[in-house]
């Protein structure tokens, strides 16, 4: 399995690809894809890096696992392919955007348009076995994606990190708070959102206010 990652990221992540853990991880993933149905499709595993170049990066959103139902995962956290029913967390993200920015609820759940504007939609684990949530956790993906976050923190500045839920909030320790912006809230999943930890966080307007202050183009959410 060849690791095909966009050139702008290759420079800062090349060292990781040579490490023993990463080689073991790739062997594990290759074996899983050969013997089980896994998501996303092989060519979409590194999609978050393909759509958002390192040089255009403005915002990082951290998810946990790809969706594990048929035709859902497209390599971008919280995103689904065009025409696919919106999963509960995405519905709550879109509801918050509608309220926060006073816009229409989006019809497509495909977040490629965010990624193309400089939003890295990064799952901590980049692959999953069909219908088995968390099945590819603790196999090395988290080591890799933690390194991605560290490198972004080190090599960049003024990035807005959106950390939703307990899992994502733990990543704050990897980020230099003097150089970057961190916005935290509960997770958009119904379990958290319905208990009052998600709605009203205004992360989308707050992110755009920060970008505006930095004289950067705001995100069209």
UniProtKB/TrEMBL annotation:
UniProt GO cellular component terms: cytoplasm
Subcellular location: Cytoplasm
Subcellular location, principal: cytoplasm
SUPFAM superfamilies: Uracil-DNA glycosylase-like (SSF52141)
Known catalytic reactions: Hydrolyzes single-stranded DNA or mismatched double-stranded DNA and polynucleotides, releasing free uracil
The Uracil-DNA glycosylase-like domain, residue ranges: 49-211
Gene3D superfamilies with a match to the protein in the record: Uracil-DNA glycosylase-like domain
A GO molecular function held by the record: uracil DNA N-glycosylase activity
Annotated Pfam families: UDG (PF03167)
EC number: 3.2.2.27
Gene Ontology BP annotations: base-excision repair, AP site formation via deaminated base removal
Enzyme class: hydrolase
InterPro entries on file: UDG_fam1, Ura-DNA_Glyclase_AS, Uracil-DNA_glycosylase-like, Uracil-DNA_glycosylase-like_sf
Residues at the active site: 65 (proton acceptor)
Domain of life: Bacteria
Assigned keywords, A-Z: Cytoplasm, DNA damage, DNA repair, Glycosidase, Hydrolase
Annotated function: Excises uracil residues from the DNA which can arise as a result of misincorporation of dUMP residues by DNA polymerase or due to deamination of cytosine.
Family from the record: Belongs to the uracil-DNA glycosylase (UDG) superfamily. UNG family.
Matches recorded under NCBIfam families: PRK05254.1-1, PRK05254.1-2, PRK05254.1-4, PRK05254.1-5, ung
HAMAP family reported for this sequence: UDG
Name of the protein this chain belongs to: Uracil-DNA glycosylase
Gene name of this polypeptide: ung
């Amino acid at each position: 399995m060849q690791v095909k990652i966009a050139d702008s990221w290759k420079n800062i992540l090349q060292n990781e690809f040579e490490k023993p853990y990463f080689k073991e991880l790739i062997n594990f993933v290759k074996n899983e894809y050969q013997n089980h149905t896994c998501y996303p499709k092989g060519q979409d595993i590194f999609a978050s890096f393909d759509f958002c170049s390192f040089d255009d990066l403005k915002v990082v959103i951290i998810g946990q696992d790809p969706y594990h139902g048929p035709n859902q995962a497209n390599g971008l956290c919280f995103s689904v392919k065009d025409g696919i029913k919106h999963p509960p967390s995405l519905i709550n993200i879109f509801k918050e955007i509608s309220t926060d920015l006073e816009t229409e609820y989006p019809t497509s759940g495909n977040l490629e348009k965010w990624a193309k504007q400089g939003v890295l939609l990064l799952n901590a684990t980049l692959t999953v076995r069909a219908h088995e949530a968390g099945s590819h956790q603790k196999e090395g993906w988290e080591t890799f994606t933690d390194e991605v976050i560290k490198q972004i923190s080190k090599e960049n500045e003024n990035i807005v990190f959106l950390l939703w839920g307990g899992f994502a909030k733990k990543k704050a320790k990897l980020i230099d708070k003097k150089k970057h912006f961190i916005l935290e809230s509960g997770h958009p999943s119904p379990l958290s959102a319905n208990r009052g930890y998600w709605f009203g966080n205004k992360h989308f307007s707050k992110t755009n206010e920060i970008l505006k202050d930095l004289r950067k183009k705001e995100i069209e959410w």
